[in-house]
Amino acid sequence: MTHLERWADSPSFRPNGSEIAFISNEAGNNDVWVMDADGDNRRQITQHEGSDDHVEWSHDGRGLLWSSDRDEQDADVWHIDLNTGKKTTTYHRAWCGHYPRAQSQR
Q1: DSSP calls for 35-95
Q2: For the purposes of burial, counting CB atoms within 10 Å of the CB of 60, is it exposed (0-12), middle (13-18) or buried (19 or more)?
Q3: Is residue 44 part of a domain?
Q4: What is the mean pLDDT of residues 64-88?
Q5: Helix H or strand E segment including 13
Q6: Are 19 and 12 in contact (CB under 8 A)?
Q7: Domain with 22 in it
Q8: Is residue 103 part of a domain?
Q9: In whole angstroms, what is the distance from residue 100 CA to residue 24 CA?
Q10: How does the average pLDDT of the chain come out, rounded?
Q11: How crowded is residue 40: how many other Cβ atoms within 10 Å of its Cβ?
Q12: Among 6, 24, 86, 105, which is most exposed with the fewest C-beta within 10 angstroms?
């Protein structure tokens, strides 16, 4: 798929199949990355000294959810809108939120 100098984990395909989000320490810390499904156009989405983990696409494919220990305590669930770059915390100090899952709108 692609060559990384370091490890990658938690791959998640965008709902339309065009991109893969994943966690990598390619830049020296566990951060969220996205690349085209063919392995091209790799780009870093988060850059923080906290450990980001378990990334998943939103159902509409416009955002990503992931867990992070940015406050050095329990994992919080974060969301980024990829169109605006706005990051928000969606769930605080959630042990069970360590593996975020997007839910469809009903």
Answers
A1: EETTS-S-EE----SSPEEEEEE-TTSSEEEEEE-TTSSSPEEEEEETTT--EEEEE-S-S
A2: exposed
A3: yes
A4: 85
A5: strand 8-13
A6: no
A7: 8-98
A8: no
A9: 17
A10: 82
A11: 8
A12: 105
| CA distances in angstroms from 94 to 38, 48, 99, listed in the order given | 34, 19, 9
CA angle 39, 68, 36 (to 5 degrees): 10
Please name which of 52, 49, 7, 46 lies closest in space to residue 26, comparing C-alpha atoms.
7
Question: Which class for 6: exposed (0-12), middle (13-18), buried (19 or more C-beta within 10 A)?
Answer: exposed
User: For the chain, how many structural domains are there in total?
Assistant: 1
SS3 21: strand
> Percentage of the chain surpassing pLDDT 90?
48
Is 70 inside a domain boundary? yes
d(CA 9, CA 33): 10
Residue 1 lies in a domain: no
Distance CA 2, CA 74 (A): 32
Q: What was the pLDDT predicted at 35?
A: 96
pLDDT for residue 23 is more than 60: yes
Q: What is the token pair recorded at 80? A: 């980024």
